[in-house]
Design goal:
By secondary structure, the chain is of the alpha/beta class. It has one domain: Rossmann fold, CATH 3.40.50. It is built from seven helices and eleven strands. Strands 1, 2, 3, 4, 5, 6, 7, 8, 9, 10 and 11 form an eleven-stranded mixed beta sheet that branches. Helix 2 packs across helix 5. The protein is globular, with a radius of gyration of 18 Å.
């Protein structure tokens, strides 16, 4: 067994992983509330896997109601060293047709009112999101799509919208003007929270539709999205297996493993003891040193 423990966050349409061996669902409690579901633990080849369906089994949780803090905290408590998130998205680019996969390398956060940090008064930290994803995980993910028989583009800007409604045509055109290439409802604040938890994070986006910017298209229809989503999810399951099998047995350290080292501002003697207890998994390195 290698020293990788990969957290897989399954988006719309991805609620199981067929290749998982010795699979069992375990409940992981978090001081940040209830995660979306139990975590499915097992192995694929030499890699330990922790799978969390983002919307819960049966897709029962709205994007705006997701408890991102509890989800990331639970995955960290389950031993994850890295996270590969998979999300259904709409396309804002002619180069990304429905059925195409793409690795995301940048984000525009247009969500409202979501809990986007583990930190608060009494323990203040500011992590860098200049490069918000792990490039080595993204490269492995793109290669895995190809091995699974799909097409994957390299690098896209993801606009995170609130939802649950889809974009108006005017909004969709505005997002294109802002430089966004895909649009979804779930990757923020998920990616921010993963960085705060010192977990290298990559996002593999599965394109389901053209969003609403094309004047000659009817716009987003859920029935067509579900049809494409089902086709995408079969490829996604194969991709997860190929991704895990292709990882080297030795996991070399990532700079993201120490993302908090220069991020915490609060002086040690001023840190809130109650916050330290809640951060025992997310910021365990620093808590133990306090």
């Amino acid at each position: 067994m290698s020293d990788w423990t990969i957290g897989i966050i399954g988006g719309s349409g991805l609620y199981q992983i067929d290749a998982l061996e010795d699979a069992q669902w375990i409940s992981v409690s978090s001081p940040w509330g209830e995660p979306s579901d139990e975590i499915l633990c097992g192995t694929i080849g030499h890699v330990r896997v922790r799978f969390l369906p983002r919307h819960g089994r049966g897709h029962r949780i709205l994007p705006s109601s997701l408890n991102g803090r509890a989800n990331i905290d639970a995955l960290k408590r389950a031993g994850c060293t890295d996270i590969l998130a998979i999300s259904a998205v709409g396309s804002l680019s002619e180069d990304l047709p429905p059925g195409r996969f793409v690795t995301v390398d940048q984000f525009i956060d247009n969500t409202k009112g979501r809990q986007s940090t583990f930190f608060d008064n009494g323990f203040v930290a500011h992590v860098s999101m200049t490069e918000p994803v792990c490039p080595r995980l993204s490269k492995h993910a793109a290669k895995a799509v190809a091995k699974a028989g799909g097409e994957c583009s390299d690098g896209a800007t993801y606009l995170a919208m609130e939802g649950p409604q889809f974009s108006s045509r005017a909004e969709s055109k505005l997002y294109r003007h802002c430089g966004a290439e895909v649009i979804g409802m779930t990757a923020m604040p998920e990616a921010k929270l993963a960085r705060e938890a010192e977990l290298p994070y990559a996002l593999l986006a599965m394109v389901t539709d053209w969003d609403s910017w094309r004047d000659d298209e009817m716009g987003v229809e859920i029935t067509r999205i579900i049809e494409q989503m089902n086709r995408n999810s079969a490829l996604a399951r194969k991709t997860v297996e190929a991704f895990c099998m292709s990882l080297p047995k030795k996991r070399n350290p990532s700079p993201i493993d120490h993302a908090l080292s220069d991020a915490v501002i609060t002086a040690p003697e001023q840190r809130d003891p109650e916050m330290l207890v809640k951060l025992d998994a997310v910021a365990g390195r620093l808590v133990r040193q306090a």
